[in-house]
Amino acid sequence: MTIDQAALGSAVKAVVDAACADDAAMLYQAVMPPAGTDTPPAEATTWFGSLLIHLALTAASASRLERGCSREAVSGWISEVLGPLPTPALLRAEDPGRIDHVEAVRAVADYSWCRESAVNLIRLGLAQPDEEPDRRGVDAHCAVTNDKDARITVMAMLGRLAAEPG
């Protein structure tokens, strides 16, 4: 599958807009391949993987962090933009009748993993040109591309980060 670069650029902009608007329906529409639900699975995977990398590169560029900077620098910038990681107590406080402790702990762990994946993906975009890609970034790309729940969460994070001037 050849990716239409104009469609990919439009999708990146649409994801950024949806993430900034905090509009889940708009976000799901923004990440869809150009052929929508008619896209064959292998082509959809290629589309999502390409979109993920472009969002990570756009976020890396928006960060204004130095090439080759530490994981801690990237993580710190993400925390500045997205805020601190939620805690199970904060999640439960939002709706204590519906969210139990186990569910809250699982949600925080999932979100934390997604945020760590975003760090790894952005670091790929901040690597020195002659530097070997960090295996954690490559692994994160594969894992997120193949996990539809994580994929939408990480893309939303990257969209918000891509809109944020460093």
Number of helices: 8
Describe the sheet with the most strands: none
The end-to-end distance, rounded to whole angstroms, is 34 Å
Low-confidence stretches: none
The counted number of beta strands is 0
Share of residues in strands? under 5%
Instruction: Please tell me what the overall shape is.
Output: globular
Overall structural class, as computed from helix and strand content, comes to mainly alpha
Task: Please tell me how large the radius of gyration is.
Answer: 16 Å
Overall mean pLDDT score?
91
Strand and helix order: HHHHHHHH
- Percent helix among the residues? over 70%
Describe the structure.
With 166 residues, the protein is an all-alpha fold. Helices cover 72% and strands 0% of the residues. The protein has 8 helices and no strands. Helix 1 packs antiparallel against helix 2 and helix 1 crosses helix 8 (148-163). The longest helix is centred in the last third of the chain and has 25 residues, at 101-125. The radius of gyration is 16 Å and the shape is globular.
